[in-house]
Design brief:
4 domains, alpha/beta, Rossmann fold, NADPH-cytochrome p450 Reductase, Chain A, domain 3, 16% strand
Amino acid sequence: MTSQNLKIFYASESGNSEAISIEIEKKLKEIGINSSVKQLNSFLKTDFSSDSKAIFVISTFGDGDPPSNSTLCFRKLARLCKNIKDANPSNDQSNPPKNLEYQKLKFCVLGLGDTNYDRFCNASKTFSGYLNTLGASGFYENGFADDAVGLELVVEPWIKGLIEHFEQSHSRPISNDTNSSTINALEKLQKLEIFPPKKILNTSVYWSNTRKYNSPIDRILSIDYSKIGNVEKLTGLPRPHKLSLSLKYLSNSPLISDSSLDQNHIPKNFQYPNWLFNHPTSEPAIQDTGSDQVFLAKVSKSHCLTTKNALKRTLLLDLDISKIDDIPYSGNPNVFEKWRVGDSFGIISPNDPLQISALFSRLNVPHNSWYCPVSIVSANDTSIPSHLKQFNHNSFLEMKSQTPLDSIPSAHDPEDSNKEPDSNQFIGFPTLFDLFLYKLDISNIPKKQLLLIMADSCSDPIEKSKILLIASRNGTSIYNELRSHQSIVSILDFLNTFSSCSITLDHLVELLPPLAPRNYSISSSPLTSSASWKFAFNSIEHTLDGPLDKPSHATDSNDQNYNLKNPAPSKKFGLCSNWLDSLCDYPPSLESLPSLNSLDSISFTNVSSLISVIDNTTSPLAPISKSHTNTFIPVFYRSSATQFRLENIQDSGNLNFNKTPILMICAGTGITPFMGFLEQLAIDQVGSEEKINRSVHLYYGCRDPFADFLFTDRLGFYKKNRILTALNVAFSRVNDNTAQNNDSTSSSNYKYVQDLLERDSDKLVDLVINLSARIYICGSAVGMGKDVHSKLTEIFFKAFNSIPEYKQSLFKFLDQPADDLSVEVSLVDVNKYFMKLSSIGRYSRDLNIQTYKSGLQENSEKFLFFIEAG
């Protein structure tokens, strides 16, 4: 395929769609397919009279509008569609229009939008409709990415699938007479061979459900409907959903006996089910092959990095990813040679069992069915969501009729001696409880389509009308308040608030989103130990003190049942972080932080001295480590997220790479991957015959120098031994708002990391433009990440417009005419500059998407796109 018949068009307000289009072009070129990237308006000038394919990346701006650089194309296509409809006003299908302008065009659309706006991805959906009306047809499914939860959650797997589509159609065509069922069977066989054991090992791995802290299970929302005013007619309600699947119990006998359950009908220990490792995770990019497979990693050590006075509790865990005898699915040697500094991994974190127990109890699910095995029945297999396809009842029937069954361990608590039902015949299928435990996101606020079903299930007409109002366009302000990061509303909160709602489990299974893995950056180097991952994270908690947790507007405080109707739960806890903290038995907080010079006594002469620094076993203020002998968590290596790597000297073909300056910008636990960077740079220094003269600058923002200044002693060690050239730290929540630079001076002018960037603007510009420095940013996407990018854009905008040499270098870098230097550089030009830096590996961002509305997720994503409005 050549660039003559494959075009990529983008419509973008601030450059996001363009960056993604360039990325698609790059990946297509890697598989031998040439394409061209153009603005959407140029689509009108393109000839599609012969068979052609086109890819469209279109953002939605404002309230459902197309970007300003594409309005001409939208208007023209709208007129063409209107002419067709005017010529056939009755929409007579027996007389379809002929010679449609784009009938030889095959296309696909990637839409970018934000569900905080009513008309989500309206521009891309409208454009797709125009092309269909004008005779074009799709060759690959459209994708719609939501900036409210992270564009990359859709963009990355969509692009991956698109490239795979072209690989299959371009280099591996399948003949027409090939039996599709045979192909499907071969594909299934290839996947099954990744985990070939025909007999499950007798040793089983359990995790303890002992927790000090649980999110409330009896929260009732105080929703203020008065701000909506009088509503005569509801508008914008979602379309009614027709149920297409149902749960089928494979046995009426639970696989866990009542004697092993507590008062909440929950076992003390949960066994990791084998199907968790034999199938892909909820992350679309996971292919369950080689290095991507889910496996059990052993938690070897854990300790707390912050003091008791810290606003957030930060833990550091050491994972052993090697294979351990007699532990099924432990370790993954395929990863040893693949992971690099800056890479990340995912954790398959379960829901809080207490929340599931409360949900089942609220819906009156019989206790004797909670631990019965289930499958999913659907008239059409394609209607089963992808994260649940492995539980298709047809697969169970096929397995039962064709597969010889070997013995596997029962799924009961090992401490219970009662005889359990034989679970051999249910291998690969979950109990009802496990289905909700590992596969469904119950922490998320219900989508509007689910709200519509909940409203229909209400026996109280007043409650029904309230839910319908929230689901309608009229109630957008209420819904946005419920889904905000301050509210953290779950489906259980909704059901507690609307007591007459009696939605079925079938609806929940079909419409609840998949439980997403939690992703974390690795803070260590494979050159130290390829079988060990270190990572740090905040133990997330959120106080419920917003308007939704005030006394009910409809409840009298003198009512004797007032306190029962309006309990006052104080906090919700992070799904994965609280689980990990409990598994590690809550490592104690530090009494005080070590100082920058606490490791000065260590002589940096070899790798062993560096390891003693990394393990921090010499300082009297070293964190108290907890060793663990039988604590395992399911993880997977994110082989598709390798854009944040620090190339080392051995891997780089660039002989000048060891002279390239490095700028590391972070806040909070965003420093985690940079500790791996510094570890790598230190090892390179030890292994080099000559001194590596590289400029390495760290800009770090945290709250309190005495409570949460993470890795203080190690940073001081790297600074003293000149691995780190400049250490610049801003503290946001101390009385004098001190900022510490590499000379250990302080000032009240620097509260956030972007203040430090403003202070050093001239140095930053010189490092990037004149010395080709590489920029790495790690932290929160919505707050710090956006603010830092805006500050860098501002700094370089001023530099390009004030210094002619810089302006000339910009135009040359962007392949633009540089003859007239009187032309002012625009913010769009500066954004293009950073996008091109990103495309050549000189501007990398690892940004954390913290979606409190999705159950306090601690999701670290390789977020390499620019935030688009609308």
